[in-house]
Amino acid sequence: xxxxxxxxxxxxxxxxxxxxxxxIGVSMLSYSLMTVVxxxxxxxxxxxxxxxxxxxxxAFFTLLCFGFGLLRSVKVVVSQAVGRGETDTTHFLxxxxxxxxxxxxxxxxLGFPAGAGLAHLxxxxxxxxxxxxxxxxxxxxAPLALAAIALREARYGLGDSQLPMRATIAxxxxxxxxxxxxxxxxxxxxxxxxxxxxxxxxxxxAWLALAQREHGFGLNRRGLAELAGLWRLGWPLGLQMTLxxxxxxxxxxxxxxxxxxxxxxxxxxxxxxxxxxxPALALGEAASVLAGQAVGAGQHRxxxxxxxxxxxAAVIYTGICGVLFAVFATPIAEAFTGExxxxxxxxxxxxxAAAFQIFDGAxxxxxxxxxxxxxxxVPATISVGIAWLCTPPLALALGYGLGMGVxxxxxxxxxxxxxxxxxxxxxxxxxxxxxxxRAARRPNGGVALA
Length: 450
What we know:
Largest sheet: none
Number of helices: 17
Shape: globular
């Protein structure tokens, strides 16, 4: 097996972290902008359409997130292989593509019945029809969406974050143009927004596939041999992401029963918070890659330093975002809608979002670094347990019991983020992940699962 010298960045850790993070951040912001553009266009169709897209979008991501979470394991195994000095990692990508296409076909088949069920949860027939239409169309693009994730995660594991950035920017441009064309001149409404998103995902997948073609896709016997290992590492990540995102699905269902204004305000706040969450996640993902390479090279002592540097950058950025959310809450809400009730509710929850920003950055970094080491089962259990103990119960108790509506759910989310950040950083600083990684070390030197 061909090997190279690992960790050329170890003497320039912070610059390497930023080199990896900024293209990931641009990619994520571009992807977030894609959803913001959808929301701005659809918002002109009325509150019912906006509420329907919110419900349909959350339902689509809920269905997608098991595969999304599982495919993050591609980045982990590739980064650890790079740390071991391996130069051929295409077999890990091949395993990821097989998983992506298989799960994507399953989701595409579930889209129509799930959309029909979603219509019954809406507060009005109009928002229910919009949600059903949006989900059914978006689900058709699930195989392409998951394939793009597998290709992107493999690139991240190699330390290449610029190619995925270019692919995402191209997809965003496609989405903006087609959103306008499909929704207004062609009069396709909510379904047009969904088709624009499907076309954008197809463009992203095509860009990444064309770049990968010269290196190969690993769709061979060696790639198939990695399926079991990828599954063992990935299913806790997939389950964690599914159960955590399900809390948002439950929140959306609760808000839908309260009324279209609560759902629309929730949708606006989610899109705004993405502008802080996604760059912080980019720093976390970059730290995850470096942590994986460090573990693969057996340099465990580097992991804590990687995490602390990522934390510093994330806290500075999210802190600034928190101040901006609080100061400009009303103008932000007014940019999305002219409905007074929606604006009032959106402003309330933007204040809550401002309060948890720093803790959100800390939570993100801790989760990503632990995942990069291969320590996934215990952090997944911790995160899922905290999410379900805090957010849905408080949404019901405060939202219904005390009549706080959407604000009650966001207070529960705030508590979840603060508690998770404290607990996961305790695990990281106490180096509990080292025991887990050593217990899971495979004979070939790779870390299979912790």
